[in-house]
Structure formats: structure tokens, C-alpha cells
Amino acid sequence: MFEFRDLFQWDRFITPTIIKTFYWLVIALIVLFGISGIFSGLAAMAVSPFGGFILLLSSLASVIVGVIAARICAEFVLIVFRINEHLGAIRDQGQPQGQQY
Question: How far apart are CA 24 and CA 20, in angstroms?
Fold first, then answer.
């Protein structure tokens, strides 16, 4: 976890520690919008059964696509930070002892 003082220092990245929290917040928003779309589709079925059914299906598909897209974005951010860590380790292995950049 990160501490409050980490916000003012640039020695450590805080994004990898909080990305999971943002991921779950995005998932919650996607599910809430999906539920809203499902209820809208059910309400639209009273006016137009076919249109309401299409809205219902598109809401369900949007939730599935949204969850997958959120996961891909979160993993991409984590991969970028992991690449940064690995490149730093490679850089440190190639330096002679006593030299630090």
C-alpha cells in the first residue's frame, strides 16, 4: 500500500497499488449502467417489444464488453509499470559497481 507522503515523492509509483481500486470502481459503474439499460429495455418493451428486446440485449452485451475492456486497460497499465521495473533491473545489472544514475 502507499502512504500519504508517497504523493509528494517521486521515488515510487503509486499507480500500481491503486489500479485495482480503480478497476473495481469501473466495474461497479459498468454494472450500474448495465442495470439501468436493462430496466430501460424492460420499460421500452411496453411500447415496442422488439425495440425493448434489442435494448435489453445491447445492455447485456455492453456490460460484458465493458468488463473485458476495463480488465484489458488495467492489465495494460500494470504491464507498462512492470516493464519499467524490469528495464531498471536490467540497467542495474549492466552497470559496474559504484556507478549509479
Answer: 6
Grid coordinates of 98: 559504484
* Contact status, residue 23 vs residue 9, Cβ threshold 8 Å: no
DSSP 32-90: HHHHHHHHHHHHHTTT-HHHHHHHHHHHHHHHHHHHHHHHHHHHHHHHHHHHHHHHHHH
Neighbour count for residue 84 (Cβ, 10 Å): 12
Q: What is the pLDDT of residues 25-71, one digit of tens each?
A: 999 999 999 999 999 999 999 999 999 999 999 999 999 999 999 99
